[in-house]
């Protein structure tokens, strides 16, 4: 972690900007993938990543761990966006307007859509754990810190989610010569 002087000086502002850039380079891709896996929507992931980094820039050096902070912020932004979209769709949004926006299915390959569809069958907590550990590469303790829960809870949710995903993906891919659907042992859940 870098110590940054107060943002009142141009040197401090430059140092903070450099730290945010480094965090962006390190975190953006795995964060985006995790958000797509969790939300099932490319647009939600795009908007959440952009907004989380914009908020990080506005907060300045008050943020002690920018990478951890941006993970939490992006998931909160995405959750809020999904809630707003659900409310809007229940309120009866104009279907002609909705057809003008390309769907996630138009922007992802078929096999990725099978996985996104299977992930949507999981509980929200299971989906978050899979997104953070299996998609983004976090450890169970790191994912637990982001989610505000215990590492044991993350491991249990991972075990249940992987079991359900194996079943769901096996049903959608009956070809016996097909690649594995995740039945390998993961170090996070092995005894």
- Return the domain count: 2
Mind summarizing the main beta sheet? none
C-alpha geometry:
globular
Radius of gyration: 19 Å
General description of the model:
The protein is mainly α. It folds into 2 domains: 102 residues, no CATH class; 83 residues, Arc Repressor Mutant, subunit A (Orthogonal Bundle). Helix content is 71%, strand content 0%. It is built from 9 helices and no strands. Helix 1 crosses helix 6 and helix 7 packs across helix 9. The radius of gyration is 19 Å and the shape is globular. It starts with 9 loop residues before the first helix and ends in a 19-residue tail after the last helix.
Compact summary:
This protein has 191 residues and is an all-alpha fold. 71% of the residues lie in helices and 0% in strands.
Key phrases:
single chain; 191 residues; mainly alpha; disordered N terminus; Arc Repressor Mutant, subunit A; disordered C terminus; 71% helix
Secondary structure layout plus pairing:
Elements: H1 10-39, H2 42-59, H3 66-90, H4 95-100, H5 104-107, H6 110-120, H7 124-135, H8 140-147, H9 151-172
Helix pairs in contact: 1-2, 1-3, 1-6, 1-7, 2-3, 6-9, 7-8, 7-9, 8-9
């Amino acid at each position: 972690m870098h110590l940054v002087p107060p943002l009142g000086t141009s040197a401090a502002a430059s140092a903070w900007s450099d730290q945010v850039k480094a965090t962006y380079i390190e975190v953006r891709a795995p964060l985006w993938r995790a958000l797509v896996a969790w939300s099932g929507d490319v647009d939600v992931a795009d908007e959440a990543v952009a907004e989380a980094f914009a908020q990080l820039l506005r907060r300045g050096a008050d943020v002690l761990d920018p990478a951890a902070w941006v993970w939490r912020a992006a998931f909160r932004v995405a959750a809020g966006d999904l809630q707003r979209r659900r409310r809007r769709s229940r309120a009866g949004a104009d279907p002609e307007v909705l057809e003008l926006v390309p769907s996630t299915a138009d922007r992802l390959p078929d096999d990725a859509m099978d996985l996104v569809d299977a992930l949507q069958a999981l509980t929200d907590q299971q989906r978050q754990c899979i997104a953070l550990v299996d998609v983004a590469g976090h450890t169970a303790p790191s994912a637990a810190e982001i989610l505000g829960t215990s590492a044991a809870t993350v491991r249990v949710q991972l075990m249940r989610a992987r079991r359900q995903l194996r079943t769901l993906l096996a049903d959608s891919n009956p070809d016996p010569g097909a690649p594995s659907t995740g039945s390998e042992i993961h170090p996070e859940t092995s005894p």
